[in-house]
Amino acid sequence: MQRLVRHIVLAFIAALPLAAVAREDSGVCAPDTTIHDGVKAKGNIFSRVISYFDDTNKPKPKKKFDVSFIGGPHYSSDTQLGIGLMAAGNYYMKGDTTQMPSNVSLYGDISTVGFYLLGIRGNNIFPADRMRLEYNVNFYSFPTKFWGIGYANGRNKSNETKYDLFSTKFTADLYFRIARGLYIGPGVQFSYMKGSDIDPEYLYLWEGERLSSLTTALGFTAKLDTRDSYTEPHSGWLVALTQRFAPRFLGNKMAFSYTRLSGSYYREVWKGGVVAAAIDATVNYGNVPWTQLATFGGGHTVRGYYEGRYRDKVGIEGVVELRQHVWRRNGIAVWGGAATVAPSLARLSGKHILPCAGIGYRWEFKKRTNIRLDFGIGRGETAFIFNINEAF
Please, what is the angle between helix 18-26 and helix 45-55, to 10°? Predict the structure, then answer.
């Protein structure tokens, strides 16, 4: 047992990204691993951790699959104190290094409130960029909160009720390039979500809907993508139009569809400084399950709100962010934005706009792949986020 505990502790220490940050900020060199008589000294656990993270963001053109691991403790307003582990990998299809690298991330998390998460997401770029495959699959269990449907319910603090949410999601989009930077292709979405352990006093907030929903949706996405990187763009545009249909004959209890229009722009304004802007609008039609309504918050574009607090058929959000490289692998970000929800486009109201602002720290884990720590401020609440890759 003592040996097992020791291995767990050492693995935990080895995963901490802060070790590499401290190494850079202090300017202290790692312990010597000099070669004596042809044998390289291994050094202690700390020197090996420092050496490992020193190399994670260096290009490795000879490696067919460049993968690195990172993990450690974190805290967020939603999940509280937890331990996360991420593995990020870059690769080129058939060694075609003339294009952006494909990427894949395996991520897992567990926290003190009983939250656990496991998932994999990635972007696979085929040779000569003729096709692209984007995918994300995850499952999680989350003791979370619900305020009801609509802006007014979200603003009502007395509506706040706790419940357990179990979710399994799978999304995939296959794109075919029809012109330079222009892609179109089919997409599929599958999800199963269930709410449980709800105080009967607050069941009225679900407005008589089923507490579980199974959704299968098919459709297409067309997009213009001129970004210079998937994970940390410095220049270019991304404009995407997604249409999904979830009819009854695919097994859906409630038939609905949705249209999503999103756009983002990136421009380097001075050395190390990038301005990024994004806007996202989702419109649902038909009998939409409460689990599929438009929402915002959490670690996504608009940071500063509890994810899922505001939800309705229509959701719009936008943000402008300045990302500034500071020193070596360290950087910061500041942003401001706003979001709102409504039952229809005609009922959108300027009085219901919810502003947000925030500041974040960036550490370059791999080349063009950042670990981010964000603190967002919304109207009447705040949020703290630890994640990999930029919010958009």
Answer: 80
